[in-house]
Amino acid sequence: MTQNGIVLVVCVSIIQDGKFLLIKENKRVAKNMWNFPSGRIEIGEDIFEAAHREVKEETGFEVKLTNTTGVYNFISSTDDQVILFHFIGELAGGSLTVDGEEIIDYAWVKITDFSKFDNQELRNANVLNQIVDNIIEEKYFDINAFHKQLK
């Protein structure tokens, strides 16, 4: 969702066996860049619903959201202010599917190997590095810090 130059985004780090899933994006503003499954929250959409939808659309997986490392605020490469809600997720079903258009590759990466990526290969590298540091340091917060959308 974009309003007055502010973009609301959800982002999910799927962690399994000491590795997390990265996707390689081929989008207009992110050509051949690695990222966690993420995307904009749609108008009227609950942030949990948005997180589940984005993971399913970009990976084919269903996830259980377990924790959060928090909310990140930054200026994107398109000069939008981004408010990013980051979640930790566990696999709960589905199978990995890469559509070949917007998502062109994936990699299961050891958490400790993330630093081997060149920042030029990462979408919003400063934010991703901060998220990974929080994961390594296990700076997790209870997911109940976010309340479900009132209907």
UniProtKB/TrEMBL annotation:
Classification via PROSITE patterns: NUDIX, NUDIX_BOX
GO MF term (any one): hydrolase activity
Stretches of the chain forming a coiled coil according to its record: none
Pfam family, one: NUDIX
Domain Nudix hydrolase: 5-132
Keyword Transcription regulation in record: no
Keyword set, alphabetical order: Hydrolase
Domain of life: Bacteria
Family of this protein: Belongs to the Nudix hydrolase family.
Record PANTHER family: ADP-RIBOSE PYROPHOSPHATASE, DIHYDRONEOPTERIN TRIPHOSPHATE DIPHOSPHATASE
Protein name: DNA mismatch repair protein MutT
Record organism: Bacillus solimangrovi
